Amino acid sequence: MNLVVIVTSAKQQFLLSIQRNMFRFCVFVSPLAQGLILGMMYMNRSSEEFTIYAVFGSSLASFWGTLLFSSVSDIDRERYMGTLESIFIAPAGFINILIGKIIGNTLWGIITMGINISFILLFFQKKLYVSDYGLVILTFFLFMIAMIIMALMMAGLFTLSRSARIAMNSLEHPIYILSGVMFPLSMLPFFVRPLSYLLAPAWAVRLFKLAVYDGAINSKLELLGGLIVVIIGYAVICKVLYKKVEYRVRVSATLGVY
Amino acid sequence: MENIIVARNLKRDFKSKTGVIRRSEKVVNAVKGISFDVQAGEIFGLLGPNGAGKTTTIKMMTTLLLPSEGKLQIMGRDIETEEKFIRENINFVFGGERSLYWRLSGEDNMRFFADVYKVPRTIQKTKIFELLKIVGLYEERLQKVETYSKGMKQRLQIAKALINNPKILFLDEPTIGLDPVGSKMLHKLIRLQAKNGTTIILTTHYMKEAEDLCDRIAILDKGELKALGNMDELIQSCTSTKIATSLEDVYLHLVETKEGE
What we know:
The structure holds 2 protein chains of 2 kinds. Chain A is an all-alpha fold. Chain A contains 9 helices and no strands. The radius of gyration of chain A is 19 Å and the shape is globular. Chain B contains 9 helices and 10 strands. In chain B, the strands form 2 sheets. A 6-stranded mixed β-sheet of chain B has the order 6-7-8-3-9-10, sandwiched between helices. Classes of the chains: A mainly alpha, B alpha/beta. The A-B interface holds A 4-5, 8-9, 12, 15-16, 19, 81-83, 85-92, 97, 247, 250-251, 253, 255 and B 14, 59, 62-66, 83-84, 87-88, 94, 96, 98-104, 108, 111-113, 115-118, 121, 164.
């Protein structure tokens, strides 16, 4: 880990991203639309359900959308700008530069979440219905770590592929559905539900439910453990992946446009 | 003089797949078994028509690509397994206006690349200002790169490539699209770097540029090495079949002969 490079790269990304109109739309407008849709869907349901899906669910989806969209399209953009080759062979290490970029996007993702939550609560004149705020904060923190690693994995994979945009757009909504951030997983066919155990947002939603309904401490610890295992799993896959990616990229020649 | 680059029987193939239902694989042999050495401190030219394999060869030397076959050593290190050491000692410019962050200022670009090239923070500012002065962009350093002219962007690329005091500098068509003043300034800079001991690998389509700058030149065509040597040796190599007095004569003789066959 090269902290100087991570901070430099995060700062650069934070400043660069917001200069793009599409990114500004993702950060400032999209969360309002997302919040409005889910708020309308859940406005006549219980306060607990409104909090879980309209507030937390839509904020997770907004965060995920901002982070995934920007982290993946950044690789594509760097490829077309010709800077991907420069950062790939930079002595500071490609992975350090990417971690910085993803942290830069994460900061915007947090802002997106803040806008999303504030808008929903103000627009629908509702209050948060939470029994365990500590668990909510811890869950958001772990969820962000999981998403940073996941975005890193995606960015690595998309370094190998020139079809990043198509893959990114194809992945976004299936993950929302499989994670149960917009509606309960019980509404999905039985055979697809096990896939949710692989997705950090699904664990986060389960934890938010416990935080809202004040579940038993054992259940909370169990789910926290589950989310931590998922994070460790992502980290291990990420480490192995990057060793392979750095080699395969030099074989497959996918860093440039030509 | 020691050999700073050693290439032996270097090959590079590119595979691409076509078709949706009936998938077929196409293999392009971009570099077909070339061998050459580059001595420390020399300006080494790689010439050839489009598709000759110049950029592929440079990309292998800069560790961006792995050879399909053959051996390639930079500063005595293998490019496949010792790329980290190599990367700390080289830098490159790929011609054109790319490889920069257009929405950042020239100075911010330099700061970013100084950090990723591990230039100590204590000397960064001095180094960046010095390089920006050399390439004539000091006054414009706070402007966004997107407001720069093509020539200014190329000059910024040169400054960026010198940020880590590379021992080997790869310049892939660095003067493409530059006006005569810009080209002259770049030539002066290349000579200065070589004088300071930097080894320079240069690809260009401009014969006069190669003739003026390069100590030795390799001519590539369709992935094969057609000739290698200094100006006298290259002219000598084709006088048996044609009277050659310039690099352009040699180049046209080697490339046109094959195309006419």
